[in-house]
Amino acid sequence: MHPYLIVGIGGSAGALNAYKALLGAMPSNTGMAFVIISHMSPTADSLLAIILSGHTRMAVMVATDAMQIEADHVYVIPPDSNLLMENFTFKVICPRSRRNNQIDLFFISLAAAMGNRAIGIVLSGYYHDGTAGCKQIKANRGNTFAQDISAEVEFMPLSAQHSGNVDFVIPLDKIPDKLKSLASALKI
Fold it and tell me: Which residues form the CheB-type methylesterase domain (predicted)?
């Protein structure tokens, strides 16, 4: 079943606890799909999908090329990759094109594919990845979030906020209710 909304969640340094808290607060039957875009070393043997599976009842898996995106699933970017989407299908490009732009690349493809059914969430991290992607999501009538002052590393969420392309700056525990509200409004 195709997801009603696709939620891209980008983070870097300090985002692991934010991912766990956000997924832990989400019900397992929202009709949404969640895609975690995390900065990691290209040589990393990522355990992120395994770690996150302990914090949600949704299925959590590493995205692979040509994988169908399904509702009530969580997908994690593979190491040393750029992850894109089109027609509810992932496209994995290895090796990644450059460091610390994976969130922007995914958010831009998400905006093009989903329009007003795209959501981007920028969590804790250094640099400014996610800012350009939020601009594209907004340009396509989607919605964007930035983690509030609870971010362990505030640079990425603050960069997104200062761009003027963030709709909601709220605590992590308030994001699930806001996502459900946005989904309900779109169903009308």
Answer: 3-186
Q: How does DSSP classify residue 71?
A: T
To the query of whether residue 45 is one of the catalytic residues in this protein, the response is no
Of 38, 39, 124, 128, the catalytic one is 39
Q: Is-catalytic flag, 12?
A: yes
DSSP E strand stretches across 47-183: 59-62, 73-76, 82-86, 89-93, 118-122, 143-147, 168-170
65 classed as catalytic: no
pTM of the model: 0.96
Closest CA to 99 of 64, 66, 127, 136: 127
Q: Tell me the residue type at 34.
A: F
Domains, the chain, ordered by start: 5-187 (3.40.50.180)
Average pLDDT along the chain: 94
- List pLDDT tens digits, range 100-130: 899 999 999 999 999 999 999 999 999 999 9
